[in-house]
Design brief:
The structure is a homodimer.
Chain A lengths: L2 H19 L6 H8 L3 H7 L3 H27 L3 H17 L7 H8 L6 H23 L5 H22 L4 H15 L2
Chain A binds a DNA duplex through helix 3.
DNA sequence: CTAATAGTAAACCGATCTGTTTACATTGAG
DNA sequence: CTCAATGTAAACAGATCGGTTTACTATTAG
């Protein structure tokens, strides 16, 4: 097994564990046992637990931003409708019964108030995600795509967090009704 | 010192510690040392760490819902303007340099995926807060105050979480611009 | 004065935490 | 075959975790 594969294997296992059970609540021992590796190997690939989590945020971002364009293109042909479809897509992830929220937000909040690699990685994800929304808004031909993207993100984050906390996809309906109004006014 | 006062003293100290440093990251030993009490006393007033946190969420809710009406009444005379003022008030809390988000959301997310007293307490807060927004919307004379309240909450949570994560009050400006549009359309 | 209450300090429990280190086994390439 | 790389298992470190219990000391009310 190559180095890259081994590292990916650790990432895959750690990702699920932290996503499901939280960051402080999950020890590196659990990651080791779940992956089936020794502690030495874990610390060969990652300098610290926080560095591992930071890389997992990167993994989350890459995964999400690879799947999302495909899914929203499947749901709607035009860029304008794809913004709405993004909310449908995210809601569907909750509908499947798993109420995992945003990996980056959860990590950021749990390490809130400090300056760790976790903060840096999550901020980088937020920026990347914002740029993606901006490009969608620009493609949609809206007047002020950058301003619109900022508004869309607030709605999106609000829906995601409320859904995770209440374990219900309902907040997405409220968010979508506002989004429809917002998009109509921004043409 | 009476029982109630002692308990309040523990709550006050624990509240600051958990709010600033997180829940799993803060041990009961730190709460003891900070309050200046023994472990036995702590566990006389609270059955467990999770029960303590659940009570702290109640404390957060009571505090917030006692101050908010006063502040927004100071900022705006009419109920319609007070909804907007609620965002100004919350933004001002961030502007003061402290980027503490919503205590209930933070606690809920950190204990996400399990069923603890923490979940119950935070859900109760969300309900109370929603009812408060509903009453503001009803007083404002809006068409469908319950629906509007759900939309307002999504915007509010989105702004709070994004501000905490990015340590910037900027998301409130995006949220407020959407809110203005929303309120204008809901008259 | 007495008796109950409420408190402290500290030992103790078993477990866990992140991280390092030592000793040894496996493997693959030259 | 040999040697270096890569891995495992496990001890070790020092600290912390949530929680219980014991022994002792103030305080306070009757």
């Amino acid at each position: 097994m190559t180095k890259a594969l081994k590292k990916q294997e650790i990432i895959d296992h750690a990702y699920e564990l932290f996503y499901d059970h939280g960051f402080h609540a999950t020890g590196v021992d659990k990651v080791m046992a779940d992956t089936g590796i020794s502690k030495r190997t874990l610390y060969k690939y990652f300098a610290s637990k926080e560095d591992l989590i930071a890389e997992l945020i990167g993994h989350y971002g890459e995964t999400f931003l690879k799947i999302a364009p495909v899914e929203i293109a499947r749901l709607s042909p035009d860029p304008a409708g794809q913004i709405m479809a993004l909310f449908d897509f995210r809601k569907a992830m909750f509908d499947e019964g798993s109420f995992r929220g945003c990996f980056a937000i959860s990590a950021n909040l749990e390490y809130s108030g400090r300056d760790t690699p976790v903060q840096a990685a999550s901020l980088k994800f937020f920026e990347t995600f914002l740029n993606y929304i901006k490009s969608l808004c620009a493609d949609g031909g809206y007047k002020d795509p950058d301003k619109l993207a900022g508004q869309v993100i607030v709605l999106f984050n609000g829906a995601v967090v409320a859904s995770q906390a209440s374990r219900s996809p309902a907040p997405f309906d409220a968010a979508k009704s506002v989004l429809a109004m917002l998009l109509a006014a921004a043409k």
